[in-house]
Each structure stands twice: as C-alpha cells, then as structure tokens.
Amino acid sequence: SSKAIIHRPWDNHPWLAFIPAHWKELHPLFIHFPIAFFIIEAMVGLLIAFRSTAWFQTLSVTFLKLGLLFSVPGIVTGLWDVGSSLGAANPLMAGLQDRIHYFFLTQSTISMHVLFALTVVVLGLFRWLFCLKFRDKIWTSQFRLIYIGSSLLGVWILMAAGQVGGGLSHP
C-alpha cells in the first residue's frame, strides 16, 4: 500500500515556510501567544504564593491581560478555520454558527477543543474581573489563593485544550 505524498509549497522553496500557505494555517501561529501568556501568568502566581512582591503581582496581572488580549485573534482564526473548512462564503460567520450549533457535542474533537479553550478564557476573565473588584485585597491570603488556584486550574484545562487541538493539526 502506498501513501500519498503531501507536497507543501516550502518543499522546493524553504523560504516559503515564512508565508502561510492558507488562512487556516494562521490559527496555530496566533494561538501559541495566549498559551504562553497564561502559562507565564500561572508561573508568576506560584512565585507570588511563596514571595509576594508588588512587581510579581503587576507581572502576573500583565500576563493575564496579554493572554486575554491575544486570545481574540486565536479565537477569530479558529472560527475562520472551521468556516473555511465548510466552504462558506463568509468563513467567520459560518464558523461561529457551526460552533454555536455543535457547542455541546462532546463526541466532536473540535467541540471539545472549543469548550476547553473557552473555559480557559472565561477563567481568565474571572481573574481579571476579580482583580478589578478586589483591587486592594487581591493579594491577601484568601484572595490570593482564589487567584492562583483559578490560574492553575486554567493552565490544567489549557493543557487539555492544547492536547485536543494539537491532535486536530497533528493526527
């Protein structure tokens, strides 16, 4: 049995690897930024658990904000990928409608990926709103535990989202 050989544009011209061949290939490029920011936020949170300084606190919240900000292009390109795989004229709207329609279809790998990823973003929004509401108290013992705990929970769910998402692009 022979397998079909997939030829990418950069097989003959390595410099073409710097230019995405299709829009669908942009999601993996964008999504790694919020992943890194959320993981760094959790690592700084662990440092705060042992040595809470104003600098670590500011750093943690900054990485949280960056994670949330960079989630937007990751989500948009993910929706676009889904819509373009459906062959829609408006891939973004088609992707959004598809993901809303199949949101709780847990037998679907993409639905599980979206469910996990959105949970990470919702937990991040929770931490950000938590910081805004309890600005002066956020780093006291019980509030600090809630912040760091939700950050670590977010990273755990992020790992599940990454494993499922990675399985989609690296079967």
Total number of helices: 5
Main sheet attributes: strand count, strand direction, barrel closure = none
What would you call the structural class? Answer: mainly alpha
Low-confidence stretches: none
Description:
There is one protein chain. The chain has 171 residues and is an all-alpha fold. It has five helices and no strands. It has helices at 27-50, 54-85, 91-101, 109-133, 141-169. Helix 2 (54-85) packs across helix 3 (91-101). It is elongated. The relative contact order is 0.12.
Concise synopsis of the structure shown:
The protein has helices at residues 27-50, 54-85, 91-101, 109-133, 141-169. It is mainly α and 171 residues long. Helix 1 (27-50) runs antiparallel to helix 2 (54-85), helix 1 (27-50) runs antiparallel to helix 5 (141-169) and helix 2 packs across helix 3 (91-101).
Q: What are its keywords?
A:
0% strand, 71% helix, mainly alpha, 171 residues
Secondary structure blueprint with pairings:
Layout: H1 27-50, H2 54-85, H3 91-101, H4 109-133, H5 141-169
Helix pairs in contact: 1-2, 1-5, 2-3, 2-4, 4-5
